[in-house]
Amino acid sequence: MKNCIDIKNPNECCGCAACLNICPKDAIVMIENEVGFIYPKVQEELCVNCGMCKSVCVFNKKGIGENKEPKVFAGVINDRETLKKSSSGGAFSAIANVILQEGGVVFGAAWEKDFSLSHIAAHSGEELEKLRGSKYVQSAIGTSFREAKTLLDAGKLVCYSGTPCQISGLKSYLGKDYENLLTVDIICHGVPSLKMLKDDLTFVSGKEIDELTDVKFRDKCYGWGTKGSITTKNKRIKYNAGTSPYYFYFLKGEVYRESCYNCRFPSEKRQGDITLGDYWGIKTELLKKLGDIDPDLGVSCVLVNTEKGEKWLDTAKEVLSLTVSNRKSVEKRNGQLIKHSTPLPEHQSLLEGYKTNGFSSFKAGYKKHTKDHIIRGIKNLIPSKIKRKINDFLSRS
Ligand SMILES: Cc1cc2nc3c(=O)[nH]c(=O)nc-3n(C[C@H](O)[C@H](O)[C@H](O)COP(=O)(O)OP(=O)(O)OC[C@H]3O[C@@H](n4cnc5c(N)ncnc54)[C@H](O)[C@@H]3O)c2cc1C
Ligand code: SF4
Ligand code: SF4
Ligand code: SF4
Q: Cα–Cα distance between 382 and 355 in angstroms, integer?
């Protein structure tokens, strides 16, 4: 009887690569499916049927965490330059810098030269730059869990950041708690595939991927929000739901990995010692308490889930301004803290279209949405008195 992973339903694999990392025979590789999501594949000739991959998989486990009610803050990094480069309030950089100063290593998601996204280790402030900023696509874990374990076993301080499923995968792979490990998860509603992103980048920029020099999903030169940019040698192109089918469908929640619609992690029990997100709604929730902090420059919500998280946040206080809040206040504009995304009716047809016709199916659907949106906008500009007269006229003719 086979004792290795056997994914019966694509919504029961988040691609965390814990199985790949734990396999003693390197028998597992990650393979892209037709729409670009990566899934583990066992190379039968190498497998010794030890069962380790099956037992490490979070989808074969009960329970997802035990932390108590978190302490919650609004957080903004004091350094303005870093704040500008961060997606929300730069809380990640504040915490990561403290870890580096203590001689530690920070893991997180970084662009490769060809705009693939991978988890890498940052040993210096310069390397940390690459982790900064949200990249709205699935990051490949590769063998970074093994790398983190080697460092942890050698007594090195490690901070590992990622989506809740990645942090869950890491903890399951490690199999025990390390005092010298700090985990940071982000509030997450889902990830599309890298293949979709690369198709979109080429479409929006009109350039080949190797002609792009930077991609930002959140560019603060457009303010704190969901507007980004693609940079080439000569120009900067706006990248947002108004220019990009991918970004549009990402924000609508239509093109995520199947496991994101079955995500186990929206819960009071968080995976990270610290959870970070955008404090959307800060102005209605906490404006009076913010003092001289400008909420328009971006504010992070910081959930402190464990004593270890509390200890490290305390150390970061010198570089991070914190305002006390509570979970309910964050949840109001961040439902994904407690509830996973639900696929809309268009989800299946979009993915089927992508399988058969490639990215043109995204473009066609997007064109229709934007056309409808413009028509709705024009209709809204017409005063209701005139609208009624037009309707009366049409019903009579
Ligand atoms: C796919 C995705 C979905 C998100 N959805 C929400 C949401 O619904 N609500 C919300 O409040 N916040 C969401 N966030 C988090 C938010 O965008 C910011 O990352 C968070 O507020 C931290 O911002 P910061 O300014 O402290 O640090 P930043 O410097 O902006 O964030 C950097 C951190 O994000 C990590 N990161 C970036 N891209 C990825 C990736 N693809 N996979 C794993 N880790 C990544 C880096 O490793 C690093 O830890 C999401 C982030 C991602 C990547
Ligand atoms: S360990 Fe992670 S990548 Fe492997 S099968 Fe389970 S969910 Fe998928
Ligand atoms: S059963 Fe053991 S050897 Fe086979 S793929 Fe899984 S971990 Fe690797
Ligand atoms: S929504 Fe859940 S499964 Fe999807 S990337 Fe985020 S944490 Fe992982």
A: 41
Euclidean distance between the first and the last CA atom of the chain, given in angstroms as a whole number: 74
- pLDDT of 305 reads 95
Q: Which two tokens stand for residue 20?
A: 């790949």
Question: How far, in Å, is the centroid of ligand 2 from the Cα of 145?
Answer: 13
Helical residues (DSSP H) of the chain, grouped into ranges: 18-22, 52-56, 80-85, 91-101, 125-131, 144-153, 164-174, 194-205, 245-252, 282-286, 307-316, 327-331, 346-357, 360-381, 384-396
Residues with CB under 6 A from ligand 3: 3-4, 23, 25, 27-28, 42, 47-53
249 lines ligand 4 (CB under 6 A): no
Mean pLDDT over residues 223-249, rounded? 96
Structural domains in the chain plus CATH codes:
10-60 (3.30.70.20), 71-337 (no CATH)
pLDDT bracket for residue 287 (50, 70, 90): confident
pTM > 0.70: yes or no: yes
Strands, sheet with 274-278, edge to edge from the N-terminal-most edge strand: 117-122, 105-111, 158-162, 181-186, 274-278, 300-304, 71-77, 320-325
